[in-house]
Amino acid sequence: MHYRTLGKTELNVSLLSLGTGGPSMFGQNKGLEQNNQTALVRRCLDMGINLIDTHERYKDSEKILGRALKGVPRDSYNLVTKWAYAPGVDDFNPDPEALARSVERSLQRLRTDHVEVLLFHGLMPEHHDLVVDRYVPVLQRLKDEGKVKFGGFSLRYVVDPAHEGALTALGRTPDLWDVIMLKFGILNQYASKKVLPLAMEHNVGILNMAAVRVKLPNPKLLAETVADWKARGLVPSDALPDADPLGWLATGDVDSVISAAYKFAAEHPAIGSVISGTSNIDHMERNVAALERPYLPVESRLKLENLFGHIAEYA
Ligand SMILES: NC(=O)c1ccc[n+]([C@@H]2O[C@H](COP(=O)([O-])OP(=O)(O)OC[C@H]3O[C@@H](n4cnc5c(N)ncnc54)[C@H](OP(=O)(O)O)[C@@H]3O)[C@@H](O)[C@H]2O)c1
């Protein structure tokens, strides 16, 4: 396992980490039970994964995770959780103390007295000033109390694919943020234009979410996406085959499009950790193996950058 320093937090985090949300939702959407989830977590730790991402809103993920980590030395892993400051787009909780109450509940469910990282979930640019005025003082208090070590935000990649939330925060209040969670992958490269360089400039750690789902593991969806981009002139029509358009990535030590996708997601130096949302131990083992060499052949990476690097839309 490779490790990277997560920006100014100076946490030494595994390049691949475990996510307990996404389509699998820690296996809760696939009928997994506590013993399966405990086995997954323990296997991840055995393989050197030391960062686990969760959320107050990932169904029972925090509770399941708390049980799975029972007895594991607390200093052997890092926890990231989130608070949905606006569950709907304009649906704010007007009480700043709602943040503190949410963190208390998360700590209870996770059976711990602190989390390494607390993220405001889905920061929208128009909410930046309000979040800073209303909630950041409470976050600071939680830091002073030792309940939260570092703070940041995630982005809403479906409605904000150009990362305006991060550009606003890094433009106005770069010193407030320790960590940003965003989506950077083969089909979502736009972060490399502005946000990733800015994050490096301000030494803000980047956690890479959902870099693979939903289209890359699904050949039909992937072919449809590429066909749509060709039809709209975003990708030259003769640049890729219609069937299995990214099959050419599986070459040399790259055994599949999915392995290629995790490698691509990890290669950029701004990335601290790529979060894998699989709940399948076999898949996680393959993903860990893919990141033993966290880079693609140069010609593959350059071709992907030329093909998709300019596209700033949800995929
Ligand atoms: N705004 C936010 O705060 C936010 C939003 C999205 C995600 N996140 C976090 O980021 C984490 C990662 O995102 P994600 O869950 O979308 O993860 P992801 O790793 O990008 O994609 C997971 C999907 O890829 C499949 N997959 C993974 N490895 C595979 C393999 N080796 N072979 C075949 N299929 C494979 C999984 O299916 P299988 O389960 O079958 O392996 C699953 O459908 C989430 O769990 C969550 O913690 C945060």
Fold and architecture overview:
This protein is of the alpha/beta class. The protein has a single domain (about 5-310), classed as Alpha-Beta Barrel (TIM Barrel). It is about 35% helix and about 15% strand. The radius of gyration is 19 Å and the shape is globular. The two termini are about 30 Å apart. The mean pLDDT is about 95. The structure holds NADP nicotinamide-adenine-dinucleotide phosphate. NADP nicotinamide-adenine-dinucleotide phosphate binds near residues 82 and 280.
Secondary-structure topology with pairs:
Layout lengths: L2 E3 L6 E3 L1 E4 L14 H13 L4 E3 L7 H8 L9 E6 L13 H14 L4 E6 L7 H7 L1 H9 L3 E7 L9 H9 L6 E4 L12 H7 L3 E4 L10 H13 L25 H11 L3 E6 L4 H10 L7 H11 L7
Parallel strand pairs: 3-4, 3-10, 4-5, 5-6, 6-7, 7-8, 8-9, 9-10
Antiparallel strand pairs: 1-2
Helix pairs in contact: 1-2, 2-3
The protein binds NADP nicotinamide-adenine-dinucleotide phosphate.
Keywords, separated by commas or semicolons:
alpha/beta, TIM Barrel, 8-stranded parallel barrel, 36% helix, globular, binds NADP nicotinamide-adenine-dinucleotide phosphate
Percent range for helical residues? 25-40%
What CATH first level would be assigned?
A: Alpha Beta
The total strand number stands at 10
Strand content: 5-15%
**Class derived from helix and strand content:** alpha/beta
How many structural units, i.e. domains? Answer: 1
Spans where pLDDT lies below 50 across 5 or more residues: none
Major beta sheet, specifics? 8 strands, parallel, barrel
Enter the CATH topology name.
Answer: TIM Barrel
Average predicted confidence as pLDDT: 96
Which ligands, by name, code or SMILES, are bound?
NADP nicotinamide-adenine-dinucleotide phosphate
Number of helices: 11
H/E element string? Answer: EEEHEHEHEHHEHEHEHHEHH
